[in-house]
């Protein structure tokens, strides 16, 4: 009997059970929404979406038009010129490539290391595990400001200023990720499954590969999405560590916004370009991202 | 405990059984016969693997986390006691508490502290109240419930930088959308960037826009975990919907509300990108009168615009101390809440 044979039916079983429970719980309590609910929700939705839609409207106009009253409410014809200026002159092109590299690396490393550590905290016994977990949770609340001065001094010592590894290295793991995976694996990974693999003489690495990773896959995907959003949008450390010579998207947007001769239409085109990848991700995986945030909330 | 012990014992016994003739003897047979030796080497490796693997699994996380989060925390404290200038990084002289004295004697520090507090309150309170109401609505059975949730979360996909650039344009004095809408209500154009309350309100509104949906989802998750029979018995007692919300939902959500208050407070304490970009060219000053310079912004200004990294470290540690105080107050509050229940 191989471990993967064992994993599949059980994993599927727990998933099904979980979904069923949720349906039963909701059924008794949830009232049907009335028209007023829909009206208020529509207002909330408009407030959420309007600034984004208007970004596209403003990006399709000219700088001069944006200074006039009334402000434009519909698209003009300058979208592609402005996108081009943002892409070439403001360096959004380089920035997008850099951001994909940075956020991609951070995502993979956070997910893998968080799963390993989360598994250890959830299912293995070792000395000081309680204390170390408490330390992890406690430090989730430390602001990034507490790290940037030493990081800056070290990176300048290494002669790394303005290189991508300066932004990647400090973000390779997060306390949140480890805690998130731990909370998921505590309930989603049956201890008997690990024991069964052990009985078959599987080493720890094999257990991780054939039992833990398959069981953790849904949570890994969600953590990956959340981490990517976080890494793509990270602001403080990147604008200290990098400049316009080799920017990430946020660094390029910062230079655009603090430039001396701001062209508002190009700035809006830049904001649009820099947000687009995440909007696409939300369109494709919105359900999973919403589920991940709600899941993290119950246990957090 | 029993789980791992069992797992330990079983492969050992199967290794014992393998030589066939003398079960039990194999355990002490290190390196005697070739096959028995191989087996016990294997079981020793196995035992070592069981003992060491948890540490191996947490090692990458703690090494990276320690090196880039915990150690810098301590180094920041160290640098806050030194004179460190951006212009001459290799000359770091001991300064004792000078940076802190300097800081506490500076009006800008107290202005920044006050601004951080004001902006924190006017961004957090409406945001969490709106999130609570929104979660309540999302908790009804809705057509396309997932779509509604995703839509409420889209501002969260927008980065601080992008959102602030857009809002700055919306708030511009002439030709700005906000002033144009206000003029229909007979309001004169507001100079959002220069006025005290106007700029603080504008900065707060960016925070509110980005985070309301996120917090609503957190409340929604907690609402869905409230046992149904609580509502049923409340309904039997004749409670209407509003009373159910007040006397069942809110008390059940109390831990979650406390959690979001803590998280938002932490977020408000380190607020930085919004006021920086809202200010445009001279953003790090937080306006001509420093009217929206927050602590996070003040730290960046002192460290990387003025170039005094020692003082910036002292500001960072002051922020940390404020958060520790908040955490302690929160702990006492939670404990009292628990006792009173």
TrEMBL record, chain B:
Keywords: Cell membrane, Membrane, Transmembrane, Transmembrane helix, Transport
InterPro entries, A to Z: ABC_transporter_permease, MetI-like, MetI-like_sf
Cellular compartments annotated: Cell membrane
ABC transmembrane type-1 domain mapped to chain residues: 113-333
GO CC aspect terms: plasma membrane
Ranges annotated as spanning the membrane: 52-78, 117-138, 150-173, 201-222, 256-273, 314-333
CDD domains reported for this sequence: TM_PBP2 (cd06261)
Pfam family, one: BPD_transp_1
Gene3D superfamilies: MetI-like
Protein's membrane topology: Multi-pass membrane protein
Region span, Disordered: 1-37
GO biological process: transmembrane transport
PANTHER family (alphabetical): ABC TRANSPORTER PERMEASE PROTEIN (PTHR30193), INNER MEMBRANE ABC TRANSPORTER PERMEASE PROTEIN YCJO (PTHR30193:SF37)
Family: Belongs to the binding-protein-dependent transport system permease family.
The protein's name in its UniProt record: ABC transporter permease
Taxonomic lineage from the root: Bacteria, Bacillati, Actinomycetota, Actinomycetes, Kitasatosporales
């Amino acid at each position: 009997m191989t471990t993967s044979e064992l994993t599949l039916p059980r994993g599927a079983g727990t998933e099904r059970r979980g979904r069923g429970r949720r349906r039963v719980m909701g059924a008794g309590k949830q009232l049907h929404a009335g028209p007023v609910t829909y009206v208020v929700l529509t207002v909330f939705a408009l407030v959420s979406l309007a600034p984004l839609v208007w970004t596209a409207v403003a990006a399709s106009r000219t700088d001069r038009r944006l200074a006039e009253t009334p402000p434009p409410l519909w698209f003009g014809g300058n979208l592609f010129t402005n996108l081009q200026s943002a892409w070439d002159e403001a360096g959004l092109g380089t920035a997008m490539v850099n951001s994909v590299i940075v956020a991609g690396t951070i995502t993979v490393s956070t997910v893998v290391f968080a799963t390993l550590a989360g598994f250890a905290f959830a299912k293995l016994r070792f000395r000081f595990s309680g204390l170390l977990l408490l330390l992890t949770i406690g430090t989730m609340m430390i602001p990034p400001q507490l790290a940037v001065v030493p990081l800056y001094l070290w990176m300048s010592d290494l002669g790394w200023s303005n290189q991508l590894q300066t932004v990647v290295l400090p973000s390779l793991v997060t306390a949140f990720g480890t805690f998130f995976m731990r909370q998921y694996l505590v309930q989603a990974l049956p201890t008997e499954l690990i024991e069964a693999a052990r009985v078959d003489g599987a080493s720890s690495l094999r257990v991780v590969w054939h039992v833990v990773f398959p069981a953790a896959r849904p949570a890994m995907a969600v953590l990956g999405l959340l981490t990517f959003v976080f890494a793509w949008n990270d602001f403080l450390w990147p604008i200290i560590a990098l400049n316009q010579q080799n920017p990430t998207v946020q660094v390029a947007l910062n230079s655009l916004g603090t430039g001396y001769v701001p062209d508002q239409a190009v700035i809006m085109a830049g904001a649009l370009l820099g947000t687009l990848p995440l909007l696409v991700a939300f369109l494709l995986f919105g359900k999973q991202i919403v589920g991940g945030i709600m899941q993290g909330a119950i246990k957090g | 405990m029993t789980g791992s012990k069992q797992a330990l014992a079983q492969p050992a016994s199967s290794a014992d059984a393998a030589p066939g003739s003398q079960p039990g003897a194999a355990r002490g047979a290190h390196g005697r016969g070739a096959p028995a030796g191989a087996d016990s080497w294997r079981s020793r490796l196995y035992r070592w693997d069981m003992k060491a693997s948890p540490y191996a699994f947490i090692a990458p996380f703690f090494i990276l986390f320690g090196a880039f989060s915990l150690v810098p925390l301590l180094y920041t404290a160290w640098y806050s006691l030194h004179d460190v200038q951006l212009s001459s990084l290799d000359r770091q002289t001991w300064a004792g508490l000078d940076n802190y004295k300097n800081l506490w004697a500076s009006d800008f520090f107290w202005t920044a502290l006050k601004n951080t507090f004001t902006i924190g309150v006017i961004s957090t309170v409406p945001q969490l109240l709106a999130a609570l109401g929104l979660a309540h609505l999302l908790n009804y059975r809705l057509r396309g419930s997932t779509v509604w949730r995703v839509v409420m979360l889209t501002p969260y996909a927008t980065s601080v930088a992008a959102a602030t650039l857009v809002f700055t344009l919306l708030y511009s004095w002439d030709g700005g959308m906000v002033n144009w809408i206000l003029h229909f209500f007979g309001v004169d154009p507001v100079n959002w960037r220069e006025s005290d309350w106007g700029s603080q309100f504008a900065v707060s509104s960016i925070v509110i826009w980005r985070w309301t949906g996120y917090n609503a989802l957190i409340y929604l998750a907690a609402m869905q975990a409230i046992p149904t029979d609580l509502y049923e018995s409340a309904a039997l007692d004749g409670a209407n919907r509003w009373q159910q919300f007040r006397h069942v939902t809110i008390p059940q959500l109390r831990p979650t509300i406390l959690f979001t208050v803590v998280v938002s407070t932490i977020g408000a304490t380190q607020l930085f990108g919004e006021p920086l970009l809202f200010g445009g060219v001279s953003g790090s000053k937080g306006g001509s009168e420093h009217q929206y310079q927050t602590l996070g912004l003040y730290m960046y200004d002192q460290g990387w615009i003025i170039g005094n990294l020692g003082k910036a470290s002292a500001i960072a540690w002051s922020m940390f101390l404020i958060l520790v105080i908040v955490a302690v107050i929160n702990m006492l509050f939670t404990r009292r809440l628990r006792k009173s229940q």
